Amino acid sequence: MASKEYGVFLPIGNGGWMISETAPHPEATYAYNRRVAVEAEQIGLDFIMSMAKWKGFGGTTDHWGQTLESMTMMSALAEATSTVKIWATMHANIHHPAVAAKMFTTLQDVSGGRAGMNIVNGSYADEFQQMGLWDAELSHADRYRMTEEWTQAVGRLWTEDVVTMKSDFFTLDACESRPHPAARPTIISAGRSAAGRDFQAKYADGAFLSADNLDQMREFSRYVHDKGASHGREVKTYSMLTVVLDETDAKAEAKAARYGEGLDKEALIGMRTSWGIPADTARAWADGATGSEAFQTPYVTGGPQKVIEHIEQITAEAELDGLMLIFPDYHADMLPFGEAVLPALRGKS
Which controlled-vocabulary keywords does the entry list (predicted)? Predict the structure, then answer.
């Protein structure tokens, strides 16, 4: 059985992935993220990834009101590390493919071949509306058609000396982009819809999945694996997990409960409305939200053994190739994870 891959989702936005007044509040600074990246490599994680975010959700915590830019930060972290894979996020809906191709060729060179491009096409309308870059008439299907043609263009620019391509979304007219990367950067994609999974199977090397339960996650993972194989490709599947770790299960559960007590409901409303949900609907939902909604991903609470068992269970039952991990307090939580949990997951306990 192939070994699982584990990485960390960097807290490039203030607050990390906890929407709470009583949770730790990671800073959106290079210094904070550099320490996380260096410690991720130190404990033996496989990759680090950062999102691209252009507007926050407000609330009492000003959640993600401050963010760093993904490519710039990851280029710096490539210099700060030597073995961990460097996965940066690129919005196909705002970056021209020729610009993106050149940026990732550069990151591949800087990182010594560790670069990965996480391709997204925008789901939070308001962060692009503020720039005049949101096309409300573009359907979900057209958004993925754009992303597919964009990805094809980037791939050609990485391998061909001159590219001419006419698209409904961009134009390449005898476009040159040299040097070519010595090895193609890894392609990453997150998606839940059928169109998103089809895109992952056809173009991605790594697919990030979300689902309502483990059975659905297994269904999605099998689909991407099998569909990728039908294209003659191997696609690895991942999901996200927030880890609340302490010496005992009771201490970890108490910590998670404390984080939930400070749930920032105004930020929850801001997050939902940024998806295009009407404000009154978003507020009605947030009014009934419980402390668990402070966590933006599925999460596990427990001492080392419970966390180990949980991770082994979900990766096995959902047939995942790995997980991207989130920690409420990266500086306090990651090293204990590396000491008490990761060796067992690697079969070294």
Answer: Flavoprotein, FMN, Monooxygenase, Oxidoreductase
* 133 alpha carbon, distance to own chain's centre: 22
User: Which residues sit opposite 13 in a β-bridge?
Assistant: 67
Positive or negative, the Cα torsion across 317, 318, 323, 327? negative
With bands split at pLDDT 50, 70 and 90, how would you rate the model's confidence at 123? confident
CATH label of the domain that carries residue 185:
3.20.20.30
Nearest to 6 by CA among 72, 76, 85: 85
Render pLDDT for 15-43 as a digit per residue (tens, 0 to 9).
Answer: 999 999 999 999 999 999 999 999 999 99
The answer to whether 337 and 325 are in contact (CB under 8 A) is yes
| Residue 6 main-chain phi, psi, to 5 deg | -130, 135
Side-chain-facing half-sphere of 343: CA atoms under 13 Å? 9
pLDDT digit string, tens, across residues 78-94 = 999 999 999 999 999 99
The parent domain of residue 107 ranges over: 5-345
Domain count, the chain: 1
Nearest to 228 by CA among 197, 264, 252, 259: 197
The pTM is what?
A: 0.96
What type of residue is 75? Answer: S
